[in-house]
Amino acid sequence: MSPATVTEQNGTEGIAPPGRPTYKIASIPADGIGPEVISAGIQVLETLTKELDTFGLEFGHLDWGSAYYRKNGQYLPDNALDILKGYNAILFGAVGDPEIPDHISLWGLRLAICQPLQQYANVRPTRILRGTSSPLRSCSRRDLDWVIVRENSEGEYAGHGGTSHLNEAWSVATEVSIFTRHGVERIMRFAFETARSRPRKRLTVVTKSNAQRNGMVFWDLCASKIAAEFPDVEWDKMLVDAMTTRMVLHPETIDTVVATNLHADILSDLAAALAGSIGIAPTSNLDPTRANPSMFEPIHGSAFDITGKGVANPVGTFWSSAEMLRWLGQGEAADLLMESVENVLEGGVKTLDLGGKNTTKEVTDKVCGEIERLIKSKKERGI
Q1: Which 3 state secondary structure label does DSSP give 150?
Q2: Would you state the pLDDT for residue 381?
Q3: Residue in 250, 255, 218 with CA at minimum distance from that of residue 233
């Protein structure tokens, strides 16, 4: 995106300095600890862009969430997708409210963005960050460095099915998984390309075709077809239940994983816990065609039990922000952000979920300070 006049959602304008790209980011903090961690993420990103002075970020703050739903009877305004298409990326907090059924909040906000914007590739990197440890005995940092690719548009979360004769003894409810050749082949191709880009060039296709003899057998057939396009990628197939034991007992055998909407949803939460905490885990909801903005979010959820206590772990948002920068073409900034985060963690500054005693603000301020220190050091050394 070339330098241009950008307008935030609140109507203020910012002029990008000549020769410096500026990216418009839609900020949707939403529910629970979402506003706390998104505020922390924006603080860190603004520190990074100020100190680097090589690109700019303009944030448009959108108040969509459960409070918006209570007021308006819906989570999104009617023109929400048109609004979002005016941005380069979306930074999302969390959705969920104890007084609103989860299936209403999830389908009303997050899935109402992901599916129509064709963010079909959900990418969840998992590794043990410096300064953290895995609950797995004798698991080193080199043993657990994975990328889980989740099909994000259909499968078990396609939204097909229904209920009839509710409240009767003969009530019926169906939840229909949808697997299309178009949907399965495009996520398989994306997963093989992701595996090819990593040093080990290895992919595990997760399935359950021994019991689900239609959709999952079709999933396997599509995997075999796409694999032929990638002779340089080593791949294997694993039943989802067996995959859980492999993740725990033999993490060093795993590199890149592709699974259905439901299976990868579950496996990636397990992966986050095995890496140290669900509070550090990032997510990228990508439209690989780049026709629509992609959305980046921590996976920890709204966590109402700690909302407002100032102890939420912001690292998942920092890592998601780094993935967003990388997607926007700012890989050097992404690396610097993650180096700063890991330096702070290694220095012992961490929240309760990681065994520390620091607040969200303390971790955030420390990361901002480390960004400033690293950039100053690099400039002094002429790097």
Answers
A1: strand
A2: 85
A3: 255
User: Helix/strand/coil (H, E, C) string of 256-314?
Assistant: EEEECHHHHHHHHHHHHHHHCCHHHCEEEEECCCCCCCEEEEECCCCCCCCCCCCCCCC
Q: Which helix (H) or strand (E) holds 146?
A: strand 145-151
Average pLDDT rounded to a whole number, residues 324-348: 98
- Amino acid at the residue 323: E
Closest of 350, 223, 337, 334 to residue 279, by C-alpha = 350
Integer Cα distance of 238 and 361 in angstroms:
42
pTM comes to 0.92
pLDDT tens sequence across 29-55: 999 999 999 999 999 999 999 999 999
pLDDT score of 360 more than 80: yes
- On whether the CB atoms of residues 85 and 25 are closer than 8 A, the answer is no
* pLDDT at res. 16: 46
Asked if 149 contacts 190 with a C-beta cutoff of 8 angstroms, the reply is yes
Query: 235-266 b/e with 16+ CB inside 10 Å = b?
Result: bebbbbeebbebbeeebeebbbbbbbbbbbbe
Q: What are the residues facing 162 on neighbouring strands?
A: 174
Tell the residue number behind the tokens 């940092």, with chain if given.
Answer: 141
Cβ–Cβ under 8 Å, residues 151 and 260: yes
Measured distance CA(353)–CA(329) in Å, rounded:
32
Rg for the chain, CA atoms, rounded: 21
Chain segment 93-144, per-residue pLDDT in tens: 999 999 999 999 998 999 999 999 999 999 999 999 999 999 998 899 999 9
Q: Where are the alpha helices (DSSP H) in the chain?
A: 34-52, 66-72, 80-84, 102-105, 111-114, 181-197, 215-227, 240-249, 261-275, 315-327, 331-346, 360-380
The average confidence (pLDDT) of the chain is: 93
Residue 164 pLDDT: 96
Q: Domain 134-275's class? A: alpha beta
Task: Give the domain ranges of the chain.
Answer: 22-123+281-382, 134-275
What separation in angstroms does the CA of 83 have from each of 60, 77, 283, 377?
10, 9, 22, 40
Hey, what CATH class is 22-123+281-382 in?
Answer: alpha beta
Place of tokens 């990197």: 125
